[in-house]
Design brief:
alpha+beta, GMP Synthetase, Chain A, domain 3, three-stranded mixed sheet, globular
Length: 126
């Protein structure tokens, strides 16, 4: 990704985060965070990855698809770009797997024996 594409994707991510949190009134997007924006090399398409903190991502994705035209028009007003890319929303799998990873790590830690306290070592009987 070149420098300009990175700047555009970061600007879109910041603006979408603000728009979703403060401008959209749909209750299905209350616990949504924009994790990343990937822009195609021709800058016509943008894949927006979202993380849903509570519940399944399907209702949030549906609400964002419904409000896509509002988000794109607001991006056009806020960002001084010749062409605003077409937005495509998808769930961020890494964010959803983070909770599962924490659970697995806790189970691994519980399965390991604890270190013995110093001085409580049993001496071998000869």
């Amino acid at each position: 990704m070149d420098y300009r594409t990175e700047r555009i994707s970061e600007a879109i991510r910041e603006e979408l985060t603000e728009l979703i949190e403060y401008e959209m009134a749909d209750p299905r997007v209350l616990n949504v965070a924009v994790t990343a924006v990937y822009i195609s090399p021709d800058k016509r398409k943008a894949v927006v990855r979202i993380a849903v903190h509570d519940g399944p991502p399907a209702p949030a994705l549906e609400a964002l698809e419904h409000g896509k035209s509002f988000l794109k028009s607001q991006l056009g007003l806020r960002l001084k770009m010749f062409r605003i890319p077409e937005l495509y929303f998808e769930a961020d799998q890494t964010a959803m797997l983070a909770g599962r990873l924490d659970h697995i790590l806790k189970r691994i830690r519980k399965g390991r024996p604890r270190d013995a306290a110093p001085g409580s070592e049993k001496k071998a009987v000869e």
